[in-house]
Amino acid sequence: MTYLLLKALHIVSVTLFLGNIVTGVFWKAHADRLGDLRARAQALDGIIKSDSIFTTPNVFVIIITGIATALAGHIPILSTPWILWSIVLFGISGFAFAFVAPTQKKLLANVRAGIDGAWDQAGYDALSKKWTVWGTVATGAPLIAVFLMVFKPA
After folding, report:
1. Of 24, 38, 56, 87, most Cβ neighbours within 10 A?
2. Contact between residue 10 and residue 70 where contact means Cβ atoms under 8 Å apart
3. Residues ≥6 apart with Cβ < 8 Å to 104
């Protein structure tokens, strides 16, 4: 029972973590397509806030429930390749997010300056490209980890 409860909590936290990231990508792209600076500001502000509510806290829940589930299931963490590689991928995601988070704040500052009349389109585009590159790594790595967790390759 404990194993299944921990596993369920782990799956829910991964779902919230990845769902929030993917939703943030959608809202930024949607606001960018609209081209309205106020829409961009609202989307970026929401992404930053939702990261503090869903992404960051669930990092800790994922780690705690992942380790606890493996221990409860008597699964060796470092000698089980799919667990080890999932941990490595999760670490890569965290490293990439260390670039994503400050870039989001810079994007928001750029947009707010634009609302006040000092729009820097080239600066926004450069920051968006950086956000997309690091965001792809931050999102892709844990998505691969999900497949490792499900398929459990030897």
Report:
1. 24
2. no
3. 44, 47, 48, 51, 131
List all residues 6 or more positions away from 47 whose beta carbon is below 8 Å from its beta carbon: 24, 27, 28, 104
73 vs 15: CA distance, rounded Å: 21
Task: Enumerate residues 6+ apart whose C-beta is below 8 A from 80.
Answer: 70
Please write the tens of the pLDDT for every residue from 26-75.
999 999 999 999 999 999 999 999 999 999 999 999 999 999 999 999 99
Q: How far apart are CA 89 and CA 66, in angstroms?
A: 14
Decide: residue 102, CB within 10 A, 0-12 exposed, 13-18 middle, 19+ buried.
Answer: middle
Q: The whole model's pTM is what?
A: 0.94
